[in-house]
Amino acid sequence: LENREVVLFPDKWIDCFNLWIEKANEIKSNVNCRIIVSDILENSEIANEIDPGEDLADYFLKQYQTINFNQ
């Protein structure tokens, strides 16, 4: 991770976002890198379409399946 920029996409789960922020800060204190924890599942319209325990990949898979089954 040294000298890299990393973007993390936490699952939608109670306190998961905050836990990932804490972990990112812990890593950054030991490694020279930039870590961004995305809040897309916390603060966007996508959040309403994702069930607890799911992640951004689950959202995209659902979208893919919907598109393919409707064709």
Please characterize this protein's 3D structure.
It contains 2 helices and 2 strands, in the order βαβα. With 71 residues, it is α+β, with helices and mostly antiparallel strands.
Which descriptors would you attach to this protein?
2 strands, two-stranded parallel sheet, 71 residues, alpha+beta
Structure summarized in a few sentences:
The protein is an alpha+beta fold. It contains 2 helices and 2 strands. The mean pLDDT is 88.
- Share of β-strand residues: 5-15%
Shape: elongated
Strand sequence of the main sheet, in spatial order?
A: 1-2
- What is the SS-derived class? alpha+beta
Write the layout of secondary structure elements.
Layout: E1 5-8, H1 16-30, E2 34-37, H2 56-69
Parallel strand pairs: 1-2
